[in-house]
Backbone:
């Protein structure tokens, strides 16, 4: 068998047989988000990656600062070293829903302790009265994880005039 045939066969097998821990966590997170009344979509990419989107809209809108729907988008990156759960986007139009979505995700991760020790987020929330940002409070409430919190503005291309 040629190298490329073997490689394609391996890729098909990896996609067909996801890592059991990754699958269990993705299912737990999806179930927890659905319990909040959200529409949920989970997609597997290879053996070690899942993307999960959940929204109050069936369009699965998760745009930060959006005014149409609340939602969350995640990447379970089991292929990273160490395995990392990335909070890609979050938006909440209803007070307390953002925290509920994050807690639903964390509860799903805790169903298999040790599978994901690192959680990553780009925190663009404003500073609160105590001087800390929203995600810093979430991280303080869950010290069992290694948190990587960045504060980088998203890249926006300049529009032509």
Residues:
């Amino acid at each position: 068998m040629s190298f490329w045939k073997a490689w394609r066969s391996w890729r098909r097998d990896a996609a067909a047989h996801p890592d059991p821990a990754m699958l269990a966590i993705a299912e737990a997170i999806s179930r927890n988000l659905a319990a909040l009344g959200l529409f949920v979509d989970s997609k597997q990419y290879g053996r070690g990656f899942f993307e999960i989107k959940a929204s109050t809209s069936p369009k699965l809108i998760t745009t930060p600062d959006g005014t149409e729907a609340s939602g969350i988008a995640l990447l379970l990156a089991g292929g990273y070293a160490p395995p990392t759960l990335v909070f890609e986007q979050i938006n909440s139009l209803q007070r307390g829903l953002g925290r509920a979505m994050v807690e639903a995700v964390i509860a799903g991760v805790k169903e298999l302790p040790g599978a994901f020790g690192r959680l990553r987020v780009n925190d663009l929330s404003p500073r609160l009265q105590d001087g800390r940002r929203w995600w810093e409070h979430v991280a303080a409430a869950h010290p069992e994880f290694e948190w990587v919190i960045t504060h980088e503005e998203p890249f926006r291309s300049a529009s032509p005039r």
Summary: The mean pLDDT is 86. The longest helix spans residues 20-35. Residues 19-150 form one domain. Strands lie at 39-45, 49-55, 71-77, 84-91, 118-122, 146-150.
